[in-house]
Amino acid sequence: MHFKRLLSALLLLVPFSAPAAERLGFKGVELGSSLAQIASNPKFACHVVTTPIADKVCSLRAQEKETIAGAPIDSIFYFYDQSGLTGIVVNLSEAHFQPVIDALSEKYGTPALKTEAVKNLKGIAHENRTYRWQRPEGSVQAERYAGRLDKSSIRFADDTAAQRVQQRRALLAKDPRKDL
Hints:
By secondary structure, the chain is an alpha+beta fold.
């Protein structure tokens, strides 16, 4: 009897917390993770670039294949700034868009949805759907029609990366001695 009261008292002292929200990333590569995680994988090739959010980009080599939620990926790009992952862009066929949205919703919860009309070259209107999941460390944005009616994209992004990169580059431009 004494043991049951002691156990009950201890259980009252232990705070119960909700499960932690899923961190943003793709197949174990989370935003903020090290360049070494992808650069050491022979499936990927990395290149030096100068983009608003990156100084290096890694992509799947031509002969390699990858999937998202069971759907084949056309291309994937990992964007790094100072060896920290700032974004991931996954491009896939629009035919696989809805099953990917369903899987992302299961993982990250209900997204915000924005719709807009887009027209093809013949002037025929189509409804483009953009889904967005927001987290403190960034966002996931899935666009049904990404530049073409047959292509979709999923973008995992550190939403503050572009501002940080721009500020750092501006400081370097002001003082070239810091760029040695």
